[in-house]
Amino acid sequence: MKKTSLWQLYRESFKFIKQIKGQIFLCVGIFIFMIFIGFFISPSAEIELQILEQLKQMAIKFEGLNIFQTTWEIFSNNVYVSFLSIVLGIFLGIVPLLISIFNGYIIGFVVNRVSDQEGLSILWQLLPHGIFEIPAIMISVGLGLTLGSFMFKEGESRKNIIKNVALSFILIVVPLLIIAAIIEGMLIFYLS
């Protein structure tokens, strides 16, 4: 059995990400479109209350946490969402697309509300962690979409897809989420 180095595994993972860039770009396109929808189209009062309540519940989770607990909470939540995006992609890729739609809309909604109250300059505080978190999530939803579209293939091709999806998650997505969580954890801790 031939040994594979970590460097070779990274190269395989990046090559695979390149191969599925169409699925990733589709998810990114939907995500960006939904940011604009969330920014320019206000939801009904009932939906707005639900969104605000959900955001409030997320903020409550961080109350009283130290910087390490905050970072861990962010990281574990993002890994959970990313993992679900991939695994639930087996259902024809519907869940990853829904995650792109939902997250894009929420970001657009939040950007609209925050920029109305604080001005657009406040968004620069959000940018640093988004540089790593958003690509990680978009790669995850692309991996989930890929998994859903290849689940019906037989034999070796399906095994290779599953292996490449798992490697890409572990070697690319998780490290990006670690960096994003550290940055976001520090921002939340020091800005609150």
Give an overview in words:
With 192 residues, the chain is mainly alpha-helical. It has one domain (20-191). Helices cover 82% and strands 0% of the residues. The longest helix has 37 residues, at 155-191.
What are the key terms here?
single chain; 192 residues; mainly alpha; 7 helices; globular
> Can you tell me the residue ranges where pLDDT is under 50 for at least 5 consecutive residues?
none
From the N-terminal CA to the C-terminal CA, the straight-line distance is: 53 Å
The residue-averaged pLDDT reads 87
Helices, by number, come to 7
Bulk shape: globular
Total beta-strand segments: 0
Task: Supply the number of structural domains.
Answer: 1
Structural class computed from helices and strand pairing = mainly alpha
- Strand-and-helix sequence, N→C? HHHHHHH
Mind telling me the C-alpha Rg?
18 Å
Secondary structure blueprint with pairings:
Layout lengths: L5 H14 L1 H20 L4 H16 L6 H21 L6 H25 L8 H24 L4 H37 L1
In brief:
The protein is mainly α and 192 residues long.
